[in-house]
Specification:
Organism: Pseudoalteromonas phenolica
CATH class of the largest domain: Alpha Beta
Structural class: alpha/beta
Number of strands: 11
Strand content: 15-25%
Shape: rod-shaped
GO molecular function: DNA-binding transcription factor activity; sequence-specific DNA binding
Number of domains: 3
Helix content: 40-55%
CATH architecture of the largest domain: 3-Layer(aba) Sandwich
Protein name: LysR family transcriptional regulator
Keywords: DNA-binding, Transcription, Transcription regulation
CATH topology of the largest domain: D-Maltodextrin-Binding Protein, domain 2
Largest sheet: 9 strands, mixed
CATH superfamily of the largest domain: Periplasmic binding protein-like II
Family: Belongs to the LysR transcriptional regulatory family.
Distance between the termini: 60 Å
Radius of gyration: 31 Å
Order of helices and strands: HHHEEHEHEEEEHEHEHEEHH
Low-confidence stretches: none
Amino acid sequence: MNVSLPALKAFESAARLGSFKAAATELAISPTAVSHHINNLEQRLSVNLFIRETRKVTLTATGRQLADATNQGFNIIQAGIDKVTAKDNLINVATTSSFAALVLIPALHHFYQQYPQITVNITSGEQLTTDNFTLPVRFGIREQQNQADIIKCEQFNLFSAPHIADKFINNESVTIYTTKWKNNALPNAPLEDWLALNALQDKHVVVKYFDQELFGIQQAMLENAYVFCSYTLTQGYRQAGLLAELNTQAIDSAFCYYIENKQKNTTRHNHVFIEWLDNLML
């Protein structure tokens, strides 16, 4: 049977509050409109739902049955709405392990200071995320991305613990950690080009590789060695005084961080996070 939803809502409110006037106030309509909705509902169902007296209304036995059902039904609907609305306060971000560990997670406390009502869930891995409800922050070749999707183009240089930064030139042989990514479609870090740019191609260099920049940075710090990697991932360590950039010329790379279909992903759900991330990457 077709029953008007506004009529059911007017009935549920009046039954719960015990008053047409109170229901009208709750629903922001007139008492006459509440009465009209309930009269129509009674006619549609061919039952009396209320006993109307001069100053009060009382539910009939049939009215009590329907009141229990409508109250339960609207509570279920409200719970569903609350659950869906709560998702607007959760932002799911998928990114690389190194970017998550070295950039996003250390900076999240600043985000929460600005937006304490929002929770950010970060998952890391090297596989692309195609979930429409997850914000993908990826590492790739900048020429293959739309310019509007790019949030940071990468430069590379050599970094080390501050106390050995000045010893690089005088050391006859040095160990440099750098990266060969798991993704074979990505080119190598531009170490050879960097050596040539700084006229260091004849220097005796022992190159060791990890498949993530995070591991190279950590191992270089542990061994008092050098790491050739991007500015973005060393930023936190440099600000903390744990790494120093050598007095060498940085080199532009083919790499960038980007948000795939950034414009499409800039919705009410996550536009605040994207704006914050853009500022973080400046």
